[in-house]
Design brief:
The structure holds two protein chains of two kinds.
Chain A lengths: L18 H5 L5 H7 L3 H11 L11 H10 L6 E6 L8 H8 L1 H15 L3 E6 L7 H13 L7 E6 L9 H8 L23 E5 H13 L1 H5 L9 E8 L5 E6 L4 H8 L5 E6 L5 E4 L17 E6 L4 H15 L5 H18 L5 H17 L3 H5 L2 H9 L1 H5 L6
Parallel strand pairs in A: 1-2, 1-4, 2-3, 5-9
Antiparallel strand pairs in A: 5-6, 7-8, 7-9
Helix pairs in contact in A: 2-6, 2-9, 3-4, 3-6, 6-9, 12-13, 13-14, 14-16
Chain B lengths: L14 H12 L4 H11 L3 H10 L11 E6 L2 H5 L2 H12 L12 E6 L11 E3 L2 E3 L4 H9 L3
Parallel strand pairs in B: 1-2
Antiparallel strand pairs in B: 1-3, 3-4
Helix pairs in contact in B: 2-3
The chains are: A alpha/beta, B alpha+beta.
């Protein structure tokens, strides 16, 4: 199956340093059209589209914007989350490198819909080499008077995976440690500087101009029942063709991994990065959609030479290091998981350890303050389900 | 804990922005510098230290002129980042976490930098180096003074 390029339609066809090349391909026409609609009509179009967040959580975009619109106050903010720290994810990097203009347009439409005069792009520090390209793109849009009273500022991170979490991100913009907040209140009620705020992923915002130009109905006809539109996947690992691929939601994993990325000899696939799900090769026909497995679309492929316990250990090492430390279940839980897995790596695990990992997983999923701790156990839970032998072979009571 | 709540987007009132600027000027965030910032922000020292120590690109110990950050996450691991790490160790003579005696290089392992399609990858300062092989390392390092 071929790719369907909605988000990536301009990538490779425009010069990311020159806005004129974007304007030739309908750049900023959607913003112009949106400004002739009411903000409520814009939001309605996004709701009809069924667009869900593309950063991993999949929250309905129109509902989020509506929440911020309906919150009282003159001072509101819209933020683009360009922190992209999830392991194996690089689609936003690719988008920023190739088409910053559509992103700026999408963010501007968000600003109009919500009633925000200021937008921020939170750019991870590791993408510092993209800063001047982005700033330049904003300047060009500003100079051509395309933004009309809306302004975009770029704020950089400083190296913290957890700052991809929306409330930690806001803490970081405010100059503090990137520790998530207790919710409620949610950002649309009290967000950046306690004002109504929306935070959307880069890819989510990239969909907005086409939705405005072609209508929400057009978008809702693409994809599945609960996953509308396309998804941009980042494929890496044991594949011949790593890279970025855009497929209609609901496409089977096999199409992406075997037909497009050319993976031979697959053992398992991690979908959604370190906090993602793990599927064995037997489930390669699983449709890629929110209904099944998706996350932000990082797809890391492991061939038959790879050791399951080793991969899960390294995944937990990452999460334990990046845990912000605020809440006990995650701070202590990820550390215990690493220590336990390290024992399995050395062949010194036990049946008690397996039970402890299962109990700990349930506790962390229920009680962690943010998605990092809530999803940290997934690699363990999934490999215990599909590769339990690998654990049992590494126990002393074997 | 005292929290200075900034209701403005004024960057001069933003501790993280100011810490990054101070680091760009002074190379790293020394205790003396952090104490001075605490004074000017009118917050306890632990709050400045708390922000400085939280982020991996903020340095609370002196680092070399050039900072090598090799990705150690799973996709780069699958593409033999070990060979790159060992080559850099051999070429500069220091291990991850260390700084060369002439202060030319500091060497760190970092988490996923979003270059997995071009793995194994590293950053030197803000420069991206991808599709790495041991044979490419010497020339890359030589270009940094």
């Amino acid at each position: 199956m071929a790719q369907t390029k909605i988000v990536l339609r301009n990538c490779g066809f425009i010069d990311p340093r020159r806005i004129s090349t974007s304007l030739k391909r309908d750049g900023f026409k959607a913003l112009e059209k949106a400004r002739q609609m009411t903000p409520e009509e814009v939001i309605k179009e996004v709701k009809v589209s069924g667009l869900r967040g593309r950063g991993g959580a999949g929250f309905p975009c129109g509902t989020k914007w509506e929440g911020a619109r309906n919150s009282p106050g003159e001072e509101k903010y819209v933020i683009c989350n360009a922190d992209e720290g999830e392991v194996g994810t690089f689609k936003d990097r690719y988008i920023l490198e190739n088409d910053p203009f559509t992103l700026i347009e999408g963010l501007s439409i968000a600003g109009y819909a919500v009633g925000a005069r200021q937008g921020y792009i939170y750019l991870r520090h590791e993408y510092h080499y993209l800063l001047s390209l982005l700033e330049d793109a904003v300047n060009q849009a500003r100079q051509l008077q395309l933004l009309a009273g809306f302004d975009v500022a770029i704020r950089e991170g400083a190296g913290a995976y957890v700052c991809g979490e929306e409330s930690a991100l806001m803490e970081s913009i405010e100059g503090r440690r990137g520790e998530p907040r207790y919710r409620p209140p949610f950002p649309t009620v009290a967000g950046l500087w306690q004002k109504p705020t929306t935070i959307n992923n880069v890819e989510t915002l990239m969909n907005i101009p086409q939705i405005i130009l072609k209508g929400g109905g057009w978008f809702s006809n693409i994809g599945t029942e609960r996953s509308k539109g396309t998804k941009v996947f980042s494929v890496s690992g044991d594949v011949a063709n790593p890279g970025v691929y855009e497929l209609v939601l609901g496409a089977p994993l096999r199409e992406l991994v075997e037909e497009l990325a050319l993976a031979p000899n697959v053992k398992m696939i991690q979908i959604g990065g370190a906090t993602g799900r793990i599927l064995p090769y037997e489930l390669i026909d699983t449709p890629l959609a929110f209904e099944n497995v998706l996350g932000a679309g990082a797809v890391t492929v492991f061939d038959k030479s790879r050791d399951v316990i080793d991969i899960v250990y390294r995944t937990m090492e990452f999460l334990a290091e990046e845990s912000c430390g605020k809440c006990t279940p995650c701070r202590q839980g990820t550390e215990v998981m690493v220590e336990t897995l390290e024992r399995f790596c050395r062949g010194k695990g036990s049946k008690k350890d397996i039970k402890a990992l299962e109990d700990l997983s349930n506790t962390m999923m229920l009680s962690s303050l943010c998605g990092l701790g809530q999803a940290a156990p997934f690699a363990i839970v999934d490999t215990l389900k599909y590769f339990r032998d690998d654990y049992e072979k590494r126990t002393l009571d074997n | 804990m005292t929290k200075k709540v900034t209701f403005h987007s004024e960057v001069s009132e933003n501790l993280l922005v100011v810490l990054k600027e101070a680091q760009a000027k002074s190379g790293y965030l020394s205790p003396a510098l952090m104490i001075e910032l605490a004074r000017s922000f009118d917050v306890p020292v632990n709050e400045v230290y708390g922000v400085a120590s939280f982020y991996s690109f903020l340095n609370i110990k002196p680092l070399g002129r050039n900072i090598i950050r090799i990705c150690r996450s799973v996709p780069c691991y699958l593409k033999k980042n070990h060979a790159i790490i060992e080559t850099v160790e051999r070429e500069i003579g220091i291990k991850p976490g260390e700084t060369s005696p002439d202060s030319r290089f500091s060497f760190e392992l970092t988490n996923c930098i979003g270059l997995c399609d071009r793995a194994p990858a590293m950053l030197v300062n803000s420069d991206v180096h991808v599709d790495l092989t041991p044979s490419k390392i010497l020339q890359i390092l030589q270009s940094y003074k």
